[in-house]
Amino acid sequence: MQYNDEHYAILHAILSSSYEIEGEALPDEPGEDHPYYLVSEEDRGALSHRDAHFGGSFPLMIEAYKKGRPSAVLDISLRRLQALENEEKKLGKDIAPIILSGADAEAIARAKKMYSELRTTYETTADPLVKAVCDFILADDNFEAIEKTLLAFGKKAIPALIDTIASPLLRDPLYPGYGLVPARAARLLGTLEAQEAIAPLFELLSVDESSFEEAVVPALRAIGPQAKEFLSKRVASMPRSRVNEIAASALLSFNGVAPFFFEMAKKFSDAETFTELLILGCEKLPKSYRAEFKKFAKAHSFPKEIENTIHFIINNWDKNARSASIKKNVRY
To answer: I want to staple 186 with a disulfide (CB 3.0 to 4.6 A). Which of 6, 191, 215, 324 is the partner?
Structure first.
């Protein structure tokens, strides 16, 4: 995304940086003779997050986890954090250099550098929108007020929000925003009905469907017909790949797509996982299509899972038809 204003250009550079760290070589992974060789990935993750987000302070980290703050993103118990803190107290020095690998230390350095640059930008810029975006990324609470402030800029906020969902680092819980920023930005882009965000939103969904589906799919739906058309083209695209399935899964939440799903089911009837998604999309077929759908189902030999889905859909249609007929013939 290109910016005309110098302030936006600085922010864009921060969000698109890979943060390569220059300096002396860092130590490799501990060998088998190291006293902490068998330390768990959970412990390493906790120490990395402590150093990246809490200035190396166990008390600050433990307080955040006690209060359930947004920064408490790791699946780790308070008991384990307290055990690590006690181990450090017994040793009388920071245990991070002992436990963490060179790669861990590099990642922490990159995260801290990004924090520093965002804070410096916030403090030095006079641009209220740039300040609002930095606030949006750095916040650990008061999200509603910050997002309201950002939305007040309207369409002007869209380029920066797109940058946040395009940044691989902001998807990582180790970096500013704890990995939560892209999902929050996706929701705002939906609220703004940002058509220019359709492709970046779909890219975010493609990168990690399980993490971002809950935010991205409603955003695409809020954007409307243009997003629906985009997803439809991805569903029908060739050669077929995982992209088709991701697009179909997202398109299921839109209204009026059942006839399209039926046409695609006829076209891709040989693709098991993909066909099951397409069949699911036929559930709300108008009555005028249902006889043809039943003939299509009989004419093909599908795996058991797909057959069960087909039977479920048809049984629901027949059940609803009987119920409607009974109601129609009831006399009061």
So the answer is: 215
